[in-house]
Amino acid sequence: MPAPLTPRYAAIDMLRGLAMVWMTLFHFSFDLQHFGYLQANFYNDPFWTLQRTAIVSLFVFCAGLGQAVALQQGQSWGRFWKRWRQIALCALAVSAGSYLMFPNSYIYFGILHGMAVMLVVARLVMQRFGAGAVHRVDGGQRKGIVWLLWPMGTLALVLPWLALQLHAAWPGLDFLNARGWNWLGLISHKPVTEDYAPLFPWLGVMCFGLAAGQWILRRHAALLQRLGVVPSTGAAAAPLRGLALLGRWSLSYYMLHQPLLIGAFSLVAWLRQV
After folding, report:
1. Which of 48, 111, 186, 256 could cross-link 163 (Cys pair, CB 3.0–4.6 Å)?
2. Residue 2 has pLDDT above 80, yes or no
3. Spatial distance between the Cα atoms of 251 and 232, rounded to a whole number of angstroms
4. What tens digit of pLDDT does each residue of 231-274 get?
């Protein structure tokens, strides 16, 4: 007997789709620079580095919202691991592809690698403190202590700054800059890599997404449903449907968009030489 379908929240899909559109524009600009059509510094210019931070934050926040929905709908560990394996395999593919293109700065712990680790941590946290836990209070029941996610998220955001101060006081902590440890994010200098999304501080953003998602689902689920209603006609209908579709197939789109962009730029470069 097939498992019953669980409803999706189109508002979350559209928010995730917005992140994908922004990411595409960012990567398109990066590719313009890589192929010599744009003069820009994507590694130090705040105009680009702050955009990258905002895009990753929105993407990770949406992942937290998605986990809140999955747990509220009773997602099993089996379904969780099935999706997790897809993300982990895509992360390995990103590492392999980036090594071919950037052998000296390939992606060994980018956003998908970080997401794979953060999702496991978030799932375990919510099983213990959130949707998977029920606590007795005065003979009744209340939901898990989701409020803990807010201070936990704040601590995760602050940890890299604290580690930076400790590095200055204790040089022996330099081992945290090595590749075997810098996936934690407790570093004194950024590693040479094309994408870097360590556990800290990004786990904090996912905790905020989880907390916000749990709060919205408990208090304003109907509003979330209304926000996700796509009009059947009008100028906004097609763009909103497009964003929702992108958000629903975000992993597939993420894996395809850069190879297609790079392939198109490579074709243009080849045609110009013919």
Report:
1. 186
2. no
3. 26
4. 656 666 788 889 999 999 999 999 999 999 999 999 999 998 87
* Residue found by looking up tokens 């992108």 in the block: 246
| Neighbour count for residue 179 (Cβ, 10 Å) | 10
What secondary structure, in 3-state letters, does the chain show?
Answer: CCCCCCCCCHHHHHHHHHHHHHHHHHHHHHHHHHCCCCCCCCCCCHHHHHHHHHHHHHHHHHHHHHHHHHHHCCCCHHHHHHHHHHHHHHHHHHHHHHHHHCCCCCCCECHHHHHHHHHHHHHHHHHHHCCCCEEEECCEEEECCHHHHHHHHHHHHHHHHHHHHHHHHCHHHHHHHCCCCHHHCCCCCCCCCCCECCHHHHHHHHHHHHHHHHHHHHHCHHHHHHHCCCCCCCCCHHHHHHHHHHHHCHHHHHHHHHHHHHHHHHHHHHHHHC
Predicted TM-score of the model (pTM): 0.90
Domain boundaries, the chain: 13-227+250-264
